[in-house]
Amino acid sequence: MPPSEDENLDWLYRRDPKPTGPKRPDEPEPTRVLPSDQLPPTGGRSGSTARPAQQPASPSQRPGQSVPPAGAGKPPRRKRPVRRGCAIVGAVVLALIVWLIAVPVYAWSQVHRVAYEPSGSRPDSQPGTTYLLVGSDSRAGMTKKQQKEYGTGHTSGGRTDTMMILYLPPGGDPALISIPRDSYVPIPGHGSNKINAAYAFGGPKLLTKTVEQNTGLRIDQYVEVGFDGFVNVIDAIGGIHVCLKKPIKDKDSHLNLKKGCQTLVGKDALGYVRMRKADPQGDLGRVKRQREVVSAMAKKAASPVSFLNPVRYWQLTNAGSDSLAVGENASMISMARMMIGMGKVSGGSGMTLTVPIADANAYTSAGSSVLWDKAKAKAMFDEIARGDTSGLKKYAN
Asked: What φ, ψ does residue 364 adopt, rounded to 5°?
């Protein structure tokens, strides 16, 4: 039989002829096409054959060249010194914190403690905290040369050159109230005299009792600093800046200042707050200068430079420790609150007052004295006793 057309094509294209007879036992199974629903998942489109993904050849790779595995042949990554830098910064911060804490702790250990709370009846406690701040004329710690240089004299014992009440209310603005040292008031057990004599008669206890009985306020904390401590603090902060409308010359305080703005240190700063004979306002002018200087001291002491400069921080923290005395109930926290309150006053968010005065130059058995306006003074202290400072602005000066 002649070959069919299909057989001729099989010969031409070298195709295997279609089986025409039965399948032999050793003949392999012909390839079959599976339905699309039976194909294994390939990640491609349905019915398509999966092909291995090819990585794009790099510019330096020649055609046919195999691609090395990721990371092969690369130099090991060098560890950056981040951990070492963080450790150094952490050590510096820790050292600074320790320094900021250790210095005041040491200075606090050098501060003197005094018993100031009087016996007997006392006013009831008012809301907030009331501090009695005393600048005594004690010469303790001063050499004879310093006493001569500063014009303090050689008087033994001590009196109070400066008296202020710092009141920190539970809410509202703090108030810093000056009590003129020549205030003529009753002193328990000693008749009437200038209030600074109370310290000479009976020390901190009698002074506190005198202030409490004449103001109706209970004193919660007591702080006293002598001449030497005041000078050291002034020098530690680099002096105080003042602007004088006219020159000041006072023989008793060894003061000779020119007109205009200037920085006062040492004996000039001390003389500036003590001088009164050359001031036409006498004791009232002195209390204003005292508040001015105390506010300036608090402002400079609270500046960032005082904490960031280690030398200044050490000098300032330890400047008045030898001549500083605090009440037996004082703590570092109570002193920190006092400094914060003084900072608010010096920053303008507090009030500065003087006890209302009826006569600044009255003649008494103790000589020229200051008489309080009793009605106004009582009204002012009554407002503080209620824990309210909002109405004290009318007494501000």
From this structure: -135, 180
